[in-house]
Write a structure and sequence with these properties.
This protein is an alpha/beta fold. It has a single domain, classed as Rossmann fold, CATH 3.40.50. Helix content is 34%, strand content 21%. It has six helices and ten strands, in the order βαββαβαβααββββαβ. It has an eight-stranded mixed beta sheet, sandwiched between helices. It has a two-stranded parallel sheet with strand order 7-9. Helix 1 packs across helix 6. The radius of gyration is 16 Å and the shape is globular. Bound molecules: NADP nicotinamide-adenine-dinucleotide phosphate. NADP nicotinamide-adenine-dinucleotide phosphate binds next to helix 1 and strand 7.
């Protein structure tokens, strides 16, 4: 259980807060004065206090825990994704659970991160398109899971944004992010998780890309 808060700070719920982007996002949001609450699975190695935010532990099937994470939040960010060897197929059902829970709260804003190689995209370079096809052949269930995740978000009737980065790095922030729905991305495109986190906090606040599936790069 999380403690009740009397704080008037804006509240942000982060699913995948124990991941590398999730942690950066929690840090960036906290620096901007947001109060962060994060959801992690019971087996997550993350310790309370290791992330900038309060932790709710649970499974996505546990509706009460998912709602508890979202309750009173102005926005939800979904930063989940499979860990190596990328065989876990859970993103679509987890995202459906988040969306269903959001509909039981007043929170309408959802920012969901997938990847530049997910689903159709005429703006990918030819080598990256080839790589996306290799990935879909190598891990068909995982590729389909991520496409299904995007479909669930797009049909949610929420104020959604899908953020699609190319390769993520842990480099220091450059303070420069390009973003739009037809941004050219290739195998050399990257973005640092720190820049991405700052971009997502800004997007949560401005809603510049509501109901858009946007590509981002540094
Ligand atoms: N790595 C890249 O270069 C790259 C490129 C483009 C897009 N992306 C996408 O960007 C997002 C963030 O990537 P990242 O590399 O920063 O993430 P990450 O460090 O790999 O963290 C993944 C997060 O998902 C959670 N997770 C993994 N498997 C789970 C499961 N079976 N059930 C519940 N939660 C689970 C992890 O929780 P635990 O702590 O419990 O494991 C963690 O919070 C992901 O959607 C990823 O696919 C990554």
């Amino acid at each position: 259980m999380v403690e009740d808060s009397q704080s008037m700070a804006h509240k942000l719920a982060i699913f995948g807060i124990s991941g590398r982007t999730g942690r950066e996002l929690a840090k960036a949001a906290s620096l901007k004065g947001w109060e962060v609450r994060g959801f992690v699975r019971p087996t997550s190695k993350v310790q309370a206090g290791a992330v900038n935010g309060r932790i709710v532990r649970g499974n996505f099937e546990d509706v009460d825990r998912v709602i508890e994470t979202i309750a009173d939040s102005e926005a939800v960010c979904c930063m989940i994704g499979p860990r190596p060897p990328y065989t876990d197929v859970f993103c679509a059902t987890a995202t459906a659970a988040i969306i269903a829970a959001m509909k039981q709260t007043t929170c309408k804003r959802l920012v969901c991160q997938t990847g530049a190689m997910i689903g159709p995209a005429p703006n990918r370079s030819r080598p990256m398109e080839w790589m996306a096809r290799v990935f879909a052949k190598w891990q068909p269930q995982s590729a389909e899971d991520r496409e299904e995740q995007e479909r669930f978000v797009k049909s949610s009737l929420l104020e959604w944004t899908i953020v699609k980065p190319p390769r993520l790095t842990d480099a220091p922030p450059q303070g420069r992010v390009q973003a739009n729905s037809s941004l050219r991305v290739g195998l050399l495109s990257t973005i640092s998780r720190a820049d991405l986190a700052a971009f997502i906090v800004d997007e949560v606040q401005t809603g510049r890309f509501v109901r858009q599936r946007i590509f981002v790069k540094g």
